[in-house]
Structures are given as C-alpha cells and as structure tokens.
Design brief:
With 439 residues, the protein is of the alpha+beta class. The protein has eight helices and 18 strands.
Length: 439
C-alpha cells in the first residue's frame, strides 16, 4: 500500500527543433584552448508530476518484497517520463524532416553545379551522383537527445525514497524520403548514361583512382587510401585532458575513402580561386590556407571538384578521428610525444603556421592531424549516444565540428579524441581543412 503522495518531476533540457539559430554564439578558436564546448542555454523546464496516490494504513514490517515494489514504482515513473519526453521529441520531427529535405535539395544543386550538364558528365561524376542517390534513399533524421532530471520522492509502507539523478533519452531515428530530389538526380544519371553508355569504365575511371591504393589529385596532391574498419571513438575517462563529450563508443566505417595527406595549402587554394585569404601569406604556398569559414570551403569544394572531375568533400567527424588514429593507440596522431608530431603553443615558431608535413607522420602516413591547424569536418556537433555505423551528424542544433588543434593550442586540443564546435561563419588564422573523396 502507498502512504502519502508520490510525486516526480522531470526538467527537459535543450531546445526543441533543429534550427541553425539554436546554436551557441560564435566562438574564437584561439580563446578556446581547453575544455569541452558549452551547451546552448537550456529551454525553460517542462514539468511533469505523477498523480497523487491514496494514503495507506499503518506501516508493517519491511520485507524484500517491499524493495521490489518501491523499485517498480520508480521504474514506472521513469517509463512515464520517457513517454513524455518522446512526445516532445516527436513534435520536433516535422521541422527536422523539413530541414533535412532542404539540405539534401541544396546538396543536389551543388552537385549539379560541380558536374554540369549530363551530356558532358564524367564517369566519376555519374558514379558520385549514383552514390548520393543511394544514400538519400536510406536517409534518416533523429531528434536531439533530451536529458530528464529526476526530482521528488515515492513512498511505500512507511518509507520514502528520494529520487535524484538524470536520464538521457536519445531521439529515435525517423526515415526521411526525398522523392523530388531523387527523381531529379535519377533523371540526370539516366541522361548522362544515355550519352555515355560505357561510363564507369575506361581511362576516365582509372584516372580517378581505384579503392585500395593511394591516389594523386591533379590539384591537391597525394591522397592516402584509408581502408574501412571498426575502431573505438572517444577517449577513456583516465586519459589526460579527457572531456565529458568524448564518451567511448564503437564506430564502424563500411567504406574506404581517400584523405589528403596534408591540409589544403595556400598554393592549392589560390590555384583554384585566384585569391589567398590567409593572414600568414609570408609563410609561403606550402603553408596551410587559413582564415576560411565552413561556407567558404563549400564554394572551394565545388570549384576544385569541377576542375578535377571528381567529388571532393570534407571528411566526416568519424572518418577524421579514424584517420587521425592511424590504427595506433596514441593520444595524439602518431605518438604520445606531442612535440614530435605537432606544431602547437610550446614549439610554435614565429607565432604562425608552418609548412605542411614538417613533423612525424601517423600510422596512415598523414601529416599534421594533430596541431598546425584546426580542421573543419562535415558534421555538425551532436553528443555521442551509442555505437554507430557510418555516422554523419546533420542535426543543426549546434554548429560544425572542428578537430585536431592548431599552432595556438595547448596540449589538450591536439588529442585525436578532442572535439569542439564553432560557428560556420568563423574566420581565424588558426583554422583550416583537408579534403576527402569516396571511390
């Protein structure tokens, strides 16, 4: 029997929806040399209270059966809270789906700008569009996770159990169809194949490289082949510099990809755009380009993809960390000795960037994955939730992720597990990128 009343409240943190405006104010990379990114201000808490129960008769001796009863009462209240949170998350779905469809439609427009008219499409371009179509047909969206705070108490047989702690309720994946975009893309492919019945074979395809070996880009130089695999993403709690947003989880990448062995240089940027936005132009053409925003990079990708006839892109956050680890068990990319693999605060020269590949490479023969420049990746920041396969985070709740630390960083930022997000419009002399491409 239940004595008194049973009341339980849940405060829902986070703001509903998936809008760009919900991200935090822009941060300055140089000023954020330690610590995890701060979450945006929480929405006003929504409170759910359990219905009062009837009073009981006089308490009797406590038994193990009473422990089971009161535990069941707590679990019942938790289940009710989860249902309430799910209702709030489901209310976000229409907006998330609309944002995702708009994003895919814009992605298709960018691909058309890169590969042009179907009559002149290359074999690599046709293959890239077909790959995108396959991904769009399997697309899903996921509401942001909500954190519920347990408050109040439950009473049974004369005893009261105080409730405390939090529960994180992950968003449930929702399939997202893109009928109009898929139809348009499939029509483009059909028209391109009608013009090129042998597309996908011959010299054009071979010139674009084949999975399993390194490939030399006409504009960007050597791109290392990164084979598919499974790894543990994040860092253990005992690692020096560990942050709360680095929860370890298993990630599987089912497809290999190419990744530039170094960051995009000033010379490689200028060869495509005709200009150089970098602050440290005196460093020379082999120094990484900096002072470029996430949006600037999207424009560069369109131009260099059209120039080389292949579909370049930013690596996903999971691809970046997998490549940075290089199949090794180090805190930094290639070593536990930061000075041997990275330019950072303690060994910087002239308070500026340094020419690429001036330090020891990692196990995948990649340069500067730790230090020299922070690097933009494709994903928008989302807290890790569970094990994942080929994850790409597109929920526009925070801002794009940056990785690797830079020449102005301390010893925490260049760790391969460290993650930070920052406004997509940020320009900084400590911030650059490298590009990937699929086979």
């Amino acid at each position: 029997q239940v004595s008194g009343g049973a009341a339980l409240s849940v405060a829902l943190s986070g703001k509903a929806g998936a809008r760009l405006e919900t991200g935090p104010p822009p941060e300055v990379v140089r000023g954020l040399t330690g610590g995890a990114p701060k979450a945006p201000p929480a929405a006003p808490p929504a409170t759910v209270t359990a219905p009062a129960t009837a009073s009981t008769t006089q308490a009797r001796p406590w038994t193990a059966a009473d422990d089971a009863v009161i535990a069941g009462m707590i679990e019942a209240e938790k289940s009710r809270i989860v249902d309430t949170v799910r209702e709030a998350q489901e209310a976000e779905v229409p907006q998330i789906v609309a944002v995702r469809r708009q994003s895919v439609a814009e992605e298709w427009e960018e691909l058309k700008a890169v590969f042009g008219d179907p009559a002149s499409a290359s074999a690599a371009g046709i293959a890239a569009v077909e790959q995108k179509i396959a991904a769009w047909k399997q697309d899903v969206a996921r509401p942001a996770a909500r954190r519920a705070t347990l408050m109040g108490s439950v009473s049974w047989n004369g005893r009261t159990q105080q409730l405390s702690g939090t529960m994180e309720v992950p968003g449930q994946a929702v399939p997202v169809s893109h009928p109009e975009t898929v139809r348009a893309a499939e029509a483009w492919v059909a028209a391109a194949r009608a013009q090129k019945p042998a597309a996908g074979s011959g010299a054009g395809s071979a010139g674009a490289g084949s999975g399993g070996s390194d490939w030399t880009s006409p504009t960007l130089g050597v791109m290392k082949w990164i084979k598919p695999g499974t790894f543990v993403m994040g860092s253990p709690a005992g690692e020096a510099g560990h942050q709360e947003n680095e929860t370890q989880h298993r990630v599987t990448l089912t497809k290999g990809f190419w990744l530039m062995e170094h960051e995009v240089t000033q010379g490689e940027w200028q060869a495509v755009t005709g200009s150089n936005p970098s602050k440290f132009t005196s460093c020379g053409s082999t120094c990484p380009v900096e002072n470029v925003s996430w949006d600037d990079i999207k424009g560069y990708i369109q131009k260099v993809s059209a120039r080389d006839g292949v579909a370049y892109r930013l690596p996903t956050e999971a691809e970046w960390e997998y490549a940075a680890r290089g199949g090794q068990e180090y805190i930094y990319a290639g070593s536990n000795d930061l000075k041997s693999v990275a330019w950072y605060w303690d060994n910087r020269e002239g308070n500026k960037t340094q020419p690429v590949c001036g330090k020891k490479r990692n196990g995948y023969d990649l340069c500067d994955m730790s230090g020299n420049m922070w690097e933009w990746v494709q994903d928008w920041y989302t807290p890790y939730l569970s094990d994942a396969t080929d994850p790409v985070m597109t929920t526009l709740k925070y801002s794009p992720v940056i990785r690797g630390g830079g020449w102005y960083s301390n010893t925490v930022d260049p760790r391969v597990a460290y993650r930070k997000y920052i406004s997509y419009a940020t320009h900084d002399d400590n911030l650059g990128f490298r590009l990937a491409r699929a086979p």
